Structure formats: C-alpha cells, structure tokens
From TrEMBL:
Alphabetized Gene3D superfamilies for the sequence: 3.40.50.880
Family under the similarity heading: Belongs to the peptidase C56 family.
Domain DJ-1/PfpI positions: 5-184
Top-level division of the source organism's lineage: Bacteria
NCBIfam families, per database record: PfpI
Name recorded for this polypeptide: DJ-1/PfpI family protein
One Pfam short name: DJ-1_PfpI
Organism: Rhizobium beringeri
Coiled coil stretches, renumbered: none
InterPro entries linked to this entry: C56_PfpI-like (IPR006286), Class_I_gatase-like (IPR029062), DJ-1/PfpI (IPR002818)
Amino acid sequence: MPASKILMITGDFTEDYETMVPFQTLLACGYTVDAVCPGKRAGETVATAIHDFEGDQTYSEKRGHNFALNATFDSVRAEDYDALVIPGGRAPEYLRLNADVIKSVRHFFDAGKPVAAICHGAQLLAAAGVLKGRTCSAYPACRPEVELAGGIYADISISDAVSDGNLVTAPAWPAHPSWLRQFMAVLDAAALLETNAA
C-alpha cells in the first residue's frame, strides 16, 4: 500500500546508518522520501558519521559517507508530506536551533502524522516540545532530555523500538529491523485511514 510521501530532515554529521539505511529501505519499499537539510539544496551533500559500539563507555565516531540530498529544505512544505523521519547522530543537536525545523516537526505532531526518530533524533523532538506524556526511546545519553521535555523514556534493548500512537522511536541503528517494521505499519495504518475517510 506504499503511497506515502516522507520527509527526512537531516544535517551534517548525521549518523551514517541511521540516514542511509532508512532512506534506501523506504525507497525500496515504494515510499517517496525527500531528504533535506537547512541551508543546502537538492544535489548537495551532508557529511555522515559512523557511530559504533566497540566496548567503550560510549560510542566511537568515524567519518562516514557523503549523503546526497534529493530535495531543498527551503522549497518543501511539511503540509505536503504524510510522515517524518529524523535520523540521529550529531545533526539533531544543531538542527534543533533552527526555528523552521522546529515548526516542521511540530506540524507532523499537530496533524497526527507518523513520525520516526532514532537515537539522538529525540533531541529534536524534545526541543520541539512534542514529547509531553509520550513514550519515547533514544540513545541512553538523551534520556534526561526526553524526561525534561515531559516524555516517558522507554528503557529498551538497543535492538528494539517502541511505538506510541503515531510516534516510533528506537535507541540506535541496531534497532533498524524493528524500528522500520513498526514505522511502516504506522504508515500503512495512516494510509488506510485516509483511504477509508475519502
């Protein structure tokens, strides 16, 4: 039933797997995905970072790929999209300072549209003020932000994901199978509701 048009908001030093894997998976499953970054145009790239778990107290970080954007942030309107994906990495930390990004994130919640966020993507959700009373997973170091924003932190395995209505979240890229499966189920349910309402 894929017909959904998905907006992905990303930025420099976004987590490599958390950007490229969902982007390619959703495209392969028939969804339309527009990847944008404030201040950049379609055809430009964002640098990615690979966060790995190698036995240290936190993840290690290595330079990843150049991820090509296929849409221009200034040209897109959140209203034209059915769902939102927010990858993790270091990008959410600075993207949350952009008022237009915050406005876009709020639109998806105000309209009850599906949203998938992973890892540090919760920083953007917290800054947008959309987590009050919502269950949200994130990289464990983001737990204080989730809770300070009024969210209920889901302390789950790094390979698990959690859904709270239209919001699907996960701690990090090892959760991709569960996170993407749950997100696609929410997308399909939303599309079915829209079809039945038409």
